[in-house]
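Sample pair:
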Amino acid sequence: MTPTSAQFNAAAASFSRLTSKLDYLSAADLTLVKLAYRFADAAHLGQVRNSGEPYVTHPIAVAALCADWKLDAQALMAALLHDTIEDCAVTKTELIERFGSPVADLVDGLTKLDKLHINTTVENQSESFRKMLLAMARDVRVILIKLADRTHNMRTLSNTQRIKWHRIASETLDIYAPIAYRLGLNQAYRELQDLSFQYMRPWRYAVLSKAIAKARGRKRDLIQKVQSSLEAALTGHGMTAKVAGREKSLFSIYTKMVSKNLSFAQVTDVYGFRVILPFLIDCYTALGLLHQLYRPVPGKFKDHIAIKKINGYQSLHTTLVVAPGVSVEVQLRTEGMHRVAETGVAAHWLYKENGHHHGSRADPLGSKWLQSLLDLEGENRDATEFWDHVKLDLFPDDVYVFTPKSKILALPRGATVIDFAYAIHSSVGEHASKATIHNEPVPLHTEVRNGDVVAIITSADVHPTPAWLEFARTARARSKIRQHLKTMAQADSERLGETLLTQALRAEGFERLPSLQTDAVWDKLLRFSGNRTCADLLTEMGLGRRIARIVAKRLSNLLMDAGHKPDPLLLTHEHFTHGDTVSHASVLIDGSENASVRIGKCCMPIPGDRILGYLGRGDGLTVHIDDCPVAKKLKHKESDRFIAVEWSDSPVCTFQTGVMVTVTNGQGVLAKVAGVFAASEADITHIHMSEVTHNGEIGLGFTIAVRDLQQLETVLKNLRHTTAVVNAQRNPLASNPHGGRSAVP
């Protein structure tokens, strides 16, 4: 397709508007930007946007937005070139040769992973975001260019097919707007929110726009009067101040209406003012003057100067009643604070007056979050999991918590004590055993609130458990907990695999495994199994992905080939003492096996029960009572997956089982039964109740923790001797025997 003169003129006019904004660049840098434009113009030759404009007008518009943030020449060049790899068959190598590695790296960080072979669209999107975010973590210019790209695409979204509006707008609202907020780009944040709202809810957007326009006309005189009185009050006290009116964004008004179930007329703080003052102390002085002029709304004052937001935002916020039923929010800040408030990291991180950019040096404003992305990448190989973690930290954080030494930590709303512990240091989180808030003991799942003084007590014996994931809220905490659990699960599975292989090898006449230093035997075994290391092979057996008996036979043959002979006595003993389906040498169960061994929920065995073990595929070892119906069915189908297990003489924990108690319904009966459990030293972990029968009886299903079968029998005996108890018996399914309602959540 040959470009028309009109298209040439459109592109030239767009670039002319861009160069008019580049007076802050040196002549040499401006020349480089022009070279990048010519290259992009040639690369996109013949391509047009949905609007009919030459495609190159899009990268020019993106570069213009970057110029508004005063980004350096490299960033502007990358903005102009950002679609050349993806859409124009230009290689990264070619960009390196023409414009240097820094520019090529920026463009590469922005390129979608369309050639990656990933199973689902969600995974593909997650992988693309991971690449973008990690590139951003190393050089924040990547995300600034990406945000400019998304902003221009949203501004021109009406030119795309309507069927795509909701998906693109939803993605913008869920991902790009929160990233803009996280980096302090509040102006871009508000625009992306409003544009997303416009295309996700076009009818509501139109109705609300008309309502605001009408209200603006009705209250124009009042707003002008308030602005004049504010200016007069400040100048009357010799203060130099810029007072500008501001309007709440459409999306902000809409979300407030929805969250608080308000009509538009009930939203009283649609209008506000921003007061820019020369010095920090002037902000507090002006605040006092304004509170003398108009009555402040109690509870609406926020000091974001003393305690700035995590994205660097600083201002004093107060809400004033300026007329009956009309209140306005006033923000007071210095000029420097205003620049940071509007453009975040771009205000003071990227652009240096001397034209030099230090892409590797992170400003404290965004460095902690950016560094956390690199930490998460090291702990999460799965792209979807990585993105899930990142999303947790993309929402505004409003909770500020103090350490005992008065250090302030900012956490997302809803964060708990365990999140606070991990925010201090990973080692503090991993060994957190107890905590206090304002010197009062609290559980680790306690939600922290503004102003809380939190202290963490650590213990070397404490380690993360799966239950922590239920109340951990921050990406850092959840990632660290998952990493620890994965490491522990692998270690447990490896130990179990070693036990299973040793047990199976005894049946072949060998007392113990050959030393890992016997390289020849293990190397041959690994070639047979296809594993890289002995640890991998043992782990697979512990997880049930390999049958230890088959591996043991192969290992036995290799040992005999190497000159080792089986022990005839051991071989004879094993052959005469093991059954058809269960090997004689037993795995001992004491409750310390963690992730590698599970207690069957179908039968809930406890020490004293006769048990056997089922080695599921990838699930590790599950312990069942020997006459469990579920185990019998499995044994009929997969007898080779059952192994002998025995209880240890000294279990290290209690075990859960079910008890069904039938009682005559009456006042205080539940308390009486619970008292019997307490007196018998059995902890209740769950209760379910059935409906009352026609004869006034009710079934109570308890899940309790006991040491062994003997203690359970004592509990049942004491229950049967209790007034109002009709019957008491063990019932593995008593946690919900009749599908009744739960009494203990």
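Residues 69 and 356 are 15 Å apart (CA to CA).
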